[in-house]
């Protein structure tokens, strides 16, 4: 193999950046070491360890499946399925995205106009200014708090406020509607196609091989393990 440190280029390198003979040597050594490890570990991979567990105050003896069978008959199939999801992708209707964005913007504009008309001012609907308007300027009661003990400005808090202050119920529900629409627009409409939809009009997520605690498939770019929350 080539002696001395090789100057690396910035960014991700590919096999084409390396000397072909060096790659062959590396691949050969890697195969030998891997096979030696497999030979040494195979008895443990094929072992079916016994275990004891308590169920309804009864001690139950059992035998766990061997690691090799689980790997070849379960995890390998799951990996193949996940790779197929990544390669095939999911079709995404970009025209529907654009149409939905137009309708959501119109809805937000109309909702904001109703809010300002009811309040008699241009209501700030984000950040500290929104918090101050709700709980300092308007003096609304504290109905829900955050984990840090502050008054909440979430959709659930606004819904609770609407019930607690019936004279402003319509305006507070409009504020909740605006906040919810804005969150959905920012997460699933604005720049969504530019970020995630590829040239084949499909989304190719980066799936998390470890899954989730509840055994659901999760992913990043974009994240796709949740469902829509509706009231």
- Please identify the top-level CATH class of the domain at 94-220: Mainly Alpha
* Strand adjacency order, main sheet: 1-2
Query: How many helices does DSSP assign?
Result: 7
CATH superfamily of the domain at 94-220: Taq DNA Polymerase, Chain T, domain 4
Largest sheet: 2 strands, antiparallel
Q: Can you put this structure into words, describing what you see?
A:
- The chain is mainly alpha-helical.
- It has a domain at 94-220: Taq DNA Polymerase, Chain T, domain 4, CATH 1.20.1060.
- The chain has seven helices and six strands, in the order H-E-E-H-E-H-H-H-H-H-E-E-E.
- It has helices spanning 20-46, 67-88, 94-119, 127-137, 155-164, 169-188, 192-196, and strands at 50-55, 58-63, 90-91, 202-203, 206-207, 219-220.
- The protein has a two-stranded antiparallel sheet with strand order 1-2. The chain has a two-stranded antiparallel sheet with strand order 3-4. Strands 5-6 form a two-stranded antiparallel sheet.
- Strand 1 (50-55) and strand 2 form a beta hairpin.
- Helix 3 (94-119) runs antiparallel to helix 6 (169-188) and helix 5 runs antiparallel to helix 6.
């Amino acid at each position: 193999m080539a002696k001395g440190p090789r100057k690396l280029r910035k960014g991700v390198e590919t096999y084409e950046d390396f000397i072909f003979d060096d790659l062959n040597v590396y691949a050969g050594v890697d195969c030998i070491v891997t096979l030696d490890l497999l030979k040494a570990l195979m008895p443990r991979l094929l072992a079916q360890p016994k275990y004891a567990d308590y169920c309804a105050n009864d001690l139950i003896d059992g035998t766990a499946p061997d690691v090799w069978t689980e790997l070849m008959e379960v995890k390998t199939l799951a990996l193949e399925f996940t790779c197929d999801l990544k390669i095939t992708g999911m079709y995404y209707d970009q025209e529907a995205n654009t149409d939905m964005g137009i309708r959501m913007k119109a809805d937000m504009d109309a909702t904001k106009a109703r809010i300002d008309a009811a309040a008699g001012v241009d209501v700030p609907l984000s950040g500290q200014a929104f918090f101050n308007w709700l709980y300092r300027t308007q003096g609304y009661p504290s109905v829900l708090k955050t984990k840090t003990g502050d008054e909440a400005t979430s959709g659930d808090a606004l819904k609770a406020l609407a019930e607690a202050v019936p004279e402003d119920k319509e305006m507070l529900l409009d504020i909740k509607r605006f906040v919810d629409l804005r969150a959905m627009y920012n997460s699933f409409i604005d720049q969504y196609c530019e970020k995630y939809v590829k040239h084949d009009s499909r989304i190719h997520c980066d799936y998390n091989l470890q899954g989730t605690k509840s055994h659901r498939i999760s992913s990043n770019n974009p994240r796709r393990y949740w469902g829509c929350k509706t009231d």
